[in-house]
């Protein structure tokens, strides 16, 4: 193990962000481009003004050069998130959101705020969602036992945040539980 | 905590003594546990280091009494309010209360063992939330050393953490700090 200690326990948020960049997103290109072939698949051709689905990292690159307009994913609008937030605060379980919503929403809000409506409202909604969900995963901690834990709809960033503690404490509990009839 | 031969933690957890009562006279073994006599007499009581106690107890040369960190007094205190018990002062600085408890548990008969296991598990779960809460709080404060909030109760709780809990505390603090940094590093120019 030549990794530094801090990287051994779990994936870091920046790495998750990189992984999230593989997800597909719709753009409206401003430039024409032939079909491009990558290991992950073929994308394009880009023909303005026809919409096209390309990986997020490519969209960000084009966006930085002002060669496209990114269309926000269908879950990234005020009504949808407000609805999820309402469910989040009224129901005991986690509401279903895309697995990588935290990463994607942050990337888009940072890189393409001019393509998205109600940026400030979205930011505050996302923050509220995060806090509501955090308090739920905290409750999950109290219900921890040694063999299993079921927290459906938890998203990748949240899983990553609680991973080191949950793994370690479940490990400790496995040690503390006495398995009957283990006599030599 | 682990059974692994090479686990430093397991070795440290055995850095405790057990009160043993010998059942037989054992010749030429009076030096065990710091005695002066030549022979060990039956019914004599000695503080035996845990690593040695295994052999003695499994070979049925002695009985042991449940050590004070797991006495009924401590168990009752844990039952009443597990957060107010200072585990670290029970097993000494950097001691591993849970590791010690696990070792004792394995030497006990099934009934007592299960009871101890339940005590350990309940105490662990009850204290875990508070540990993570405080870890997150400290991660949010940023660099360590800023004002110590929370008053006496919380700082006493922190000092009372045993070795295993301290490890969890720092794990929680580190991951919270990392996520928080990512969430807050907004307006930096992207690529």
UniProtKB/TrEMBL annotation, chain A:
Record localization: Nucleus
Main subcellular location of this protein, as a coarse class: nucleus
Domain called GINS subunit: residue spans: 75-175
Protein's UniProt keywords contain NADP: no
Protein keywords: DNA replication, Nucleus
Residue ranges of domain DNA replication complex GINS protein PSF2 N-terminal in the record: 13-71
Similarity comment: family membership: Belongs to the GINS2/PSF2 family.
PANTHER family per the UniProt record, alphabetical: DNA REPLICATION COMPLEX GINS PROTEIN PSF2
Subunit (UniProt): Component of the GINS complex.
Protein name: DNA replication complex GINS protein PSF2
From TrEMBL, chain B:
Residues covered by the GINS subunit domain: 71-183
Chain segments carrying region Disordered: 171-191
Location in the cell: Nucleus
Residue ranges of every copy of the DNA replication complex GINS protein PSF3 N-terminal domain listed in the record: 6-55
Skewed-composition ranges (Basic and acidic residues): 175-191
Keywords (A to Z) from UniProt: DNA replication, Nucleus
Claim: Nucleus is one of the keywords in the record: yes
Gene3D superfamilies cross-referenced by the UniProt entry: 1.20.58.2050
Pfam families per UniProt: PSF3_N (PF22466), Sld5 (PF05916)
Functional description taken from the UniProt entry: The GINS complex plays an essential role in the initiation of DNA replication.
Subunit structure, as described in the record: Component of the GINS complex.
Family affiliation: Belongs to the GINS3/PSF3 family.
PANTHER family: DNA REPLICATION COMPLEX GINS PROTEIN PSF3
Protein name (database record): DNA replication complex GINS protein PSF3
Lineage per the UniProt record: Eukaryota, Fungi, Dikarya, Basidiomycota, Agaricomycotina
